[in-house]
Amino acid sequence: MTRLWSTALVTTALASRNILRNPRRTLLTLTAVIVGVASTVALAALARGVAQQLVDDSIYNLTGHLKIQHPDSARDPAVEHTIDAREESVEALQQIPGVHAVLPRIVAPAVIRSERESFPITLFGVDPGLEGRNSVAGKAVSNGENLSDSDDSHLILGSKIVEKLETRIGRRVVVMTQDIENEIADRGFRIEGIFQAEVQSTELLFSFTGLETLRKMLRLKDDQLHEISILVEPEASLPEIQKQVQKLFPKAAVLTWQELQPLVVSMTKIQNGFLIIWFLIVIVSAGFGLVNSLLMSIFERVREIAVMHALGMTRVWIVIETVLQSFLLLVVGGLIGVLGGMAIVRQFSGGIDLSKFARGASIAGIGDRIVPQLIWSDVVLVVGLLIALGTLGSLYPAWLAAQVNPARSLQRL
Amino acid sequence: MSRSIALESVSRLYHQADVLVKAVSDVSLTFEPGEFTTLFGPSGSGKTTLLNLIGGLDVPTSGQVRIGETVMNVLSPSERATFRLNHIGFIFQSYNLIPVLSARENVEFVMQLQGVHSAARRERAMEVLGRVGLAELSDRRPDQMSGGQQQRVAVARAIASEPDIILADEPTANLDSKTAADLLSLMQELNEVRKITFLFSTHDKQVMERARRLVRLRDGKVENDERRS
Hints:
The structure holds 2 protein chains of 2 kinds.
Chain A: H1 3-21, H2 23-63, E1 66-69, E2 83-84, H3 87-95, E3 99-113, E4 118-126, H4 128-131, E5 143-144, E6 155-158, H5 159-165, E7 172-178, E8 184-195, H6 200-205, E9 206-210, H7 211-218, E10 224-225, E11 227-232, H8 238-248, E12 253-256, H9 257-260, H10 262-300, H11 302-310, H12 315-347, E13 352-353, H13 358-363, E14 369-370, H14 376-393, H15 395-402, H16 406-412
Parallel strand pairs in A: 4-9, 6-8
Antiparallel strand pairs in A: 1-11, 1-12, 2-10, 3-4, 3-7, 3-11, 5-8, 7-8, 13-14
Chain B: E1 5-16, E2 19-31, E3 36-40, H1 47-54, E4 62-67, E5 70-71, H2 77-87, E6 88-91, H3 103-114, H4 118-131, H5 147-160, E7 165-169, H6 177-194, E8 197-201, H7 205-210, E9 213-218, E10 221-227
Parallel strand pairs in B: 3-8, 3-9, 6-7, 7-8
Antiparallel strand pairs in B: 1-2, 1-4, 4-5, 9-10
């Protein structure tokens, strides 16, 4: 057995036993670490849940993972900005590995008018069979009936716009827009169903009718569409799929949800930044507690440290012994904290009901139920930062321990 | 290998508030390998300071401390610690056992730092604990032992690794006369058989009676240096 290994063993034994020497202080320090880690893990999961919901809502609210549209549509969503979507091209999309759903749509900015009110809306012509569970357009209505097929000439409205229009199911409303020839196109629709969305603005702005009904109203040709929304699985395959889709639609813009929803991307980036700041605040706070505890321990052990030094333990090993105490506390506290955080997340795995604050949450683009999402990279980051910064912080008390003058300390006490 | 100890014009000055204290003043002494020496004198005469300087726990303000060929005061604190580990044993007045280690582990501590194999270490620790009459209490921690028992463990710790020199600061101060006599006999035996150099700082007549050399200190200076046959 080498001297190094033997010294490491006795140093580890000293560190672990010194941790247990003052159980009350160790418990208090551990509690600070555990609470800090558990709350950070739980809050990180909550923040990730909010972020994921923002992204999911953004994709679910008709954006999709990828969208094929006219290159000028983003700047000017005019009716004439269509894409050439021949049947074989649409079918080819479905053959691309990783493509989960292909959702062709016709979109028209319009005005909806009831007997009492009129409001601007975006009217989507959709194929309800394809939309299914893939978007808000296929979501089961909360009241009335869903669209039956692409030729369905009824209208599905959000509950908020119905409330504003002071109308109801079965009543007729008039939708006015502009056709491909720049002529006014209007027609009456009977309200067949009312949907509810996570975010109120969706209920206000989006209305749906059959794809072919809107095609006729806008006088579009059979191969003309305004957009094709694509869902992919898994999302990691998105860049490759984007390239293949672009080959099939060389003249169209093929945009990812990140390009279409820069605000959502910015919000998640800002949230990531805040999360890191939060991690640091909690970890530094717990670290101060730990350093304080170690300092107390060292002041109590001055004589003992002096004896160890007198008997031949070098300063390096005295530093290692002190740092090891901190490291062991951090590892144990960190692991229990992670388990605590996981338990909290598990407790709310069904989602946290924000319905009481739904209006405020809705303004922020968040639905009324948040499902926390535990991301292992966050857990690793929290525990890694905790151990790294805590160990670094313990270098100060360790340095103090190494400076103990054996002659003076043994005489003084 | 036994080593001689040479103090050459050694002084150690302290600043206490604004007062300059001469703890040791221009002391020159030589201790040959295998000596059994007692440093004695009134409190504040510099006995402990002199032991600290010899043990490398402190460095002289001026002069030189040499052990064998090694000049202690030019070594770094870590080099001095390593030198102590390999060549010097300490016995302190107030035992100074490591509270989180058992009696056996305290005795093994120095050997463990030296890298002695665990089986050999354990065997040696039990052997020396047996010699101080504490084999039965080897698993007890210091707070579960009396003062006398702790001091016996401290002696066992100092002798277990068989250093060249053992520095003992008031080793019998807290012991009853019977325990003190037993421990002194053990140390005397080690001195005679193993040729370990013993340097005591003490007021205890028992220790002085057994010493073959008596160095009397006063105000940090050597007042008398008497050798006995």
